[in-house]
Amino acid sequence: MPIEAESPEELGYGNIECNLAESSVTDTNFKDLDFNIKDITLCYGDHKGLPALRELIAADYGLQPEHIILVPGAAAGLFIVATSLLNKNSQLLVERPNYATNIETPRLLECEINFIDLHFETQYKLDLYRLSTMVKSMPSLISITTPHNPTGSVLTEEELMEVVELSRRHGSYLLVDETYRELSFNNPPPLAASISDNVISVSSVSKAYGLPGIRMGWIACKNKHLLETFLAAKEQIFICNSLLDEHVALHYLQHKQQFFAPIKQHINNNFKVLEEHMNSSKNLEWVKPQGGVVCYPRIIPSIDYKVFYKELYHKHKTLVGAGHWFETSQKYMRIGFGWPTKEALQQGLHHIEATIDGLK
Ligand SMILES: Cc1ncc(COP(=O)(O)O)c(C=O)c1O
Predict the structure, then answer these.
(1) Is residue 47 part of a domain?
(2) Same domain flag for 335 and 233
(3) Do 98 and 237 sit in the same domain of this protein?
(4) Is 30 within a domain?
(5) Of all helices (H) and strands (E), which one includes residue 265?
(6) Would you list the DSSP string of 274-290?
(7) At 288, which CATH number?
(8) Distance of CA 294 to CAs 21, 121, 285, 291, 312, Å?
(9) d(C-alpha 172, C-alpha 151), whole Å
(10) Domain containing 164: what range?
(11) Residues enclosing ligand 1, CB less than 6 A?
(12) Domain containing 179 — which CATH number?
């Protein structure tokens, strides 16, 4: 996938000065967690995941620990859900653009895929009426993400309730990728999985806490049969999680207030920089994100987009998420504002403008 082949990890972080391509907050350094891992027996862990961690996550959502299965990152959760629920005889309704895994795994499973396109002109809002006309009378999974990557659009509580109701009415499952939930600008709606037992929520510690290097996420669901299926799938792939990862995540969540407060401050500061820039830009127009740490603006002048990305990276050492990462026109780009320092964000935005100016 282009998003992987052209990722900062592949290019080498040392080769990028202004990294505006990340969809998470700044990565956390282990030493800042002040956590001394000493007394952990490295046995196979509980297959559902560390009980204390599941308890903590469940309590936060108003669920029970048995409703949570810990998995190695939200990516693993999405893979498990897709491979458990989709096959050649089922339908997937999925947003586009999207985080690639939400589309690529279903493609491999050869299910019927119907895209719900999110448009710049309609503020990247999910078209609920259109969605309601697309559900077919075959086993179906509706897949949505809120806050959304790469657009930063967010479902209101009323909209979420409507999607849940729609999925229930049609006997569909609803997958809600809530990986960015903690990064909602306003109070988020209840966790989708807590609303109805045909709903599956997936999330992780990667994006909001800057902990993608411990592979720790979870599937939340109230449906016993689904949970058994997901657990069986997890056991086939991983047996259990890394106990080290589970304990680091537990430590983090036990001290979340302390660790998360400065992260939120950083995001707010950077968002101000971004908003100011976008409001005065002659080269970019945007849909202001409502959550998360990314936005999906587009280039206004007609330029050679391929050259733009090339020059931006090779001349200015600045990386953004190019439109083709998300199967859209190259005139769109994802800008991540939570990961870079304020200075790198300012510099990177300046480089974007200078590169476009040079190509007009
Ligand atoms: C919407 C979305 N879901 C899931 C993931 C995977 O995250 P994790 O690091 O928890 O596997 C990502 C990562 O970019 C994402 O953007």
Answers:
(1) yes
(2) no
(3) yes
(4) no
(5) helix 256-280
(6) HHHHHHH-SSEE----S
(7) 3.90.1150.10
(8) 9, 18, 14, 8, 18
(9) 25
(10) 43-254
(11) 23, 73-75, 99, 145, 149, 177, 179, 204, 206, 212, 217
(12) 3.40.640.10
Number of separate domains in the chain:
2
How far apart (Å, rounded) are the C-alpha atoms in residues 66 and 54? 8
| pLDDT tens readout for residues 76-108 | 999 999 999 999 999 999 999 999 999 999 999
> Which structure tokens are listed for 258?
């302390």
Q: Which atom of ligand 1 is nearest to the CA of 24?
A: 14
For 292-347, the pLDDT digits (tens) are: 999 999 999 999 999 999 999 999 999 999 999 999 999 999 999 999 999 999 99
Give the number of the atom of ligand 1 that is nearest the alpha carbon of residue 203. Answer: 10
Is omega for the bond preceding 189 within 30 degrees of 0, making it cis? Answer: no
Position 12 in a domain: yes
Euclidean distance between CA atoms 250 and 236, whole angstroms: 24
Tokens coding 136? 């077919």
Secondary structure E strands in the chain: 18-20, 68-71, 91-96, 112-117, 140-145, 173-177, 199-204, 217-221, 284-285, 294-295, 298-299, 318-322, 333-336
Q: Torsion angle, CA of 272/277/279/285, rounded to 10 degrees?
A: -120
pLDDT at 137: 85
**Nearest atom of ligand 1 to the alpha carbon of 72:** 11
* Count of C-beta atoms within a 10 Å radius of residue 138: 11
Tokens read off for 120: 């710049």
The span from the CA of 176 to the CA of 142, in Å, is: 8
Q: Considering 233, 254, 275, which residue would you say is the last residue of a domain?
A: 254
